[in-house]
Amino acid sequence: MELETAETDGHLRESSSRKKRKRKEGKTRMTTKEEKNPTVSIAVAGFIIDNAQSLELATLVARAATIFRIDEVVVFDNRASSDVDTVVRPGHDGNESESGAEFLTMILRYLETPQYLRRRLFPMHKSLKFVGLLPPLDAPHHLRKHEWCSFREGVTLDVNPPNSKGTLVDVGLNKNVVIEEVLEPGKRITVAMGDNRGAEIDGFKKAVDSSSPRDQIGMYWGYKVRYCSNLSSVIRNCPYKGGYDHIIGTSEHGLVVASSELVIPSFRHLLIVFGGLGGLEENIEEDNNLKGKNVHDVFNSYLNTCPLQGSRTIRTEEAIFISLQYFQEPIKRAEQLCNGK
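Above: the chain sequence. Below: its structure as tokens.
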């Protein structure tokens, strides 16, 4: 939804505390706003790195998601059941035992975050010890100080703006900017910087939904990361209104269809799922909510995206690159149907 609109005369008389509460509520509603464009999500079995928590593997997943403009990356664990999807958060002392899925979730979030925000958003943690050695994603929203864009990612600061109300935000420039909304510190937000490349950064800027760069100027703005305890939770807890329209499972046991002949129906929210070492069949069998179900009960399509493989096994990070390339044209055709072209 939109941020707070112009208030009536009666609203102008409401208390300052009520205004702040309304602004915070507006920001919360904004994060659940339905995107104008179709979205593509991938779900990855995070326990593929349980035995070797590899930063390089995590980087390959992040780079694949960025290269192919994925909107959401869901990392799922292999727990039989869980009422709540919880994951170790940055800011802990780093001594907690992490599953491979938790490790992958944290690294994916770190890599997607613009470099100038990482120190504020990711305190020291053992999983982040060597992340400085990783190659950058170089995503469009990872802006340098000298680069101009009508949007920037920022983090709200615990400092009152000089001579004004609102919230001070670090957007990676030599000078912080001020937004009119009153938000709690330490929150990552997307800021509309204006349309004039030569404009001063003084004056109020506007906090907008993170989908605005894509909706308004067609710019890819990174992926969201979600952790789930198991496969059924990936589908059940979809953050999009109405859930995923079409869910595709990938497996060497799937149907073989040439990419040029594959028809994906018009969709609003597409999900492509990659299993672990035992395949998605094993993930289904070990999930109490799915146990006994056939793959065709869980997925709308079940496909083999690399039928002529020369190796006995394809690693998950390899399968992601292969599959996302395979799906490029079918997704493009489906999006054109959605847009009426």
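Residues 1-34, 90-95 have pLDDT under 50 and may be disordered.
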